[in-house]
Design a protein that fits this description.
The protein is an alpha/beta fold and 428 residues long. It folds into 2 domains: 4-69 and 321-425, Aspartate Aminotransferase, domain 1, CATH 3.90.1150.10; 71-319, 3-Layer(aba) Sandwich (Aspartate Aminotransferase, domain 2), CATH 3.40.640. It is built from 14 helices and 16 strands. It has a 7-stranded mixed sheet, sandwiched between helices. The chain has a 4-stranded mixed sheet with strand order 1-2-3-15. Strands 13-14-16 form a 3-stranded antiparallel sheet, covered by helices on one side. Strand 1 (38-42) and strand 2 form a beta hairpin. The mean pLDDT is 96. It binds pyridoxal-5'-phosphate. Residues 116-118, 121, 144-146, 206, 210-211, 239, 241-242, 266, 276 line the site of pyridoxal-5'-phosphate.
Length: 428
């Protein structure tokens, strides 16, 4: 495949946009090479500016669960745009999508729409702090909750110390209020609670982790978090920006039967437009401005185009009773095929999968948390990525990302992908 035009566009972009991209993972830093500029996409396929067709396993990092340019979403946006694109005043579509989302997700009475997953998580934490009148939060190493200061924290020295900033620009003052625990390790959470009595406003967690590859919770992990939060009168925040409306209609709350107190959404809920949201029961949501004292706002929040796209997407998910089964079956088929091929070539691997999320780690040990994810062979992943790309298959340009299966993928696409893995495996 040729990437001449992509290279040229990347050079031009790099003059005027830092690193040539508006979000760092797009720059291919983790795998090397030049980013691919997209011309258009339809169903399971991306078409780049050099005329290459790629089978897409990223799908805009999750939103395109029904495939690119899904007609009901496109039509909804086009029709809404004709009426004007933003008013800064209430519109009926906001209530319609709110009612639908609340009917699909367990355990929420009200929802507030924002413009990104970052905003949703940042606002959820502010609300948790305001509601609980406590200041510290617990997050898990390797879980991603967007780029707000409180989340850009790495473990400090020693197991029970404060976090420290992992980006310049995040202050030590902010970092000391974020405590780092180990995913799938309840003991690490219990220790933080004990060391900081009556100070933990909330525990925020990806209930299925998707930002260190895909890491499902071990049995009892989410239940244990619920118990610890109840014992210490702390709020449990499920960041379902990735998993919400993807793993089930009602997300991981529905799958696991564990209820969180605040749930964050993004990605699928916007149908490909910039949307985030956070939701909770009345008791908590009534703390939010203008009803309550916790401030939160947005000029373009609830934007009619974004709400129309999200509403069309959620309606499609809500009305298709077999969708999540179908997605899980396709993902399991791909999983089985890749295992067969990698095993035949004696390539060490750990593949984690749940529903339509899957990731391939070149590692022989179970991948359960950030540390075990980091032990995988990243050099091999780079070669795998570029090998797959050469076969016309676009997987995430980083070993720490999940692949997202879309309903638009056919079994023929999956077979083609497995054959490509076989070809690439011979070169690894
Ligand atoms: C993508 C993601 C975010 C951030 O969402 P943005 O829309 O990129 O700001 C937050 N949490 C999780 C779990 C995510 O996957």
């Amino acid at each position: 495949m040729k990437y001449q035009r992509s290279s040229k566009l990347f050079n031009e972009a790099s003059e005027v946009i830092p690193g040539g991209v508006n979000s760092p993972v797009r720059a291919f830093k983790a795998v090397g090479g030049t980013p691919i500029f997209v011309d258009k996409a339809k169903g399971a396929y991306l078409y780049d500016v050099d005329g290459n067709r790629l089978i897409d396993y990223i799908n805009s990092w999750g939103p395109m669960i029904l495939g690119h340019a899904f007609p009901p979403v496109i039509n909804a946006v086009v029709e809404k745009a004709k009426l004007g694109t933003s008013f800064g005043m209430p519109t009926e579509i906001e209530t319609q999508i709110a009612e639908l989302a609340i009917s699909m997700v367990p355990n929420i009475d009200q929802i507030r729409f924002v413009n990104s997953g970052t905003e949703a998580c940042m606002s959820a934490v502010r609300l948790a702090r305001g509601f609980s009148a406590k200041e510290k939060i617990i997050k898990f190493a390797g879980c991603y909750h967007g780029h707000s200061d409180s989340f850009l924290i790495q473990a400090g020295s020693g197991a029970v110390t404060f976090g420290s900033p992992n980006s310049p620009g995040v202050t030590k003052g902010t970092a000391k209020d974020t405590l780092l625990a180990t995913y799938n390790n309840l003991d690490s959470v219990a220790k933080l609670f004990e060391a900081n009595p009556s100070q933990i406003a909330c525990v925020i967690v990806e209930p299925v982790a998707g930002n260190m590859g895909c890491i499902p919770p071990q049995p009892g992990f989410l239940e244990g978090l619920r118990d610890l939060c109840d014992t210490h009168q702390s709020i449990l925040v499920f960041d379902e920006v990735m998993t919400g409306f993807r793993l089930a209609k009602g997300g991981v709350q529905e799958l696991s039967g564990v209820n969180a107190d605040i749930i964050c959404f993004g990605k699928v809920i916007g149908g490909g437009l910039p949307v985030g949201a956070f939701a909770a029961r009345h008791e908590i949501m009534s703390y939010l401005a203008p009803l309550g004292p916790v401030y939160q706002a947005g000029t373009l929040s609830g934007n009619p185009l974004a709400m129309a796209a999200g509403f069309a997407m959620l309606k499609a998910l809500d009305s298709d009773k077999q969708l999540f089964d179908r997605l899980a079956k396709k993902t399991a088929y791909l999983h089985k095929g890749i295992v067969r091929v990698l095993s035949a070539h004696q390539i060490e691997h750990t593949i984690n999968r749940i529903g339509s999320m899957i990731s391939v780690h070149f590692s022989k040990i179970p991948v359960l948390d950030f540390e075990t994810a980091s032990l995988a062979n990243n050099e091999r992943f780079k070669n795998f990525f570029h090998g797959m790309l050469a076969e016309g298959i676009y997987i995430a340009p980083s070993a720490y990302e999940t692949w997202f299966i879309t309903d638009a993928l056919t079994y023929k696409d999956l077979d083609y992908t497995i054959t490509a893995v076989e070809k690439v495996a011979k070169t690894l």
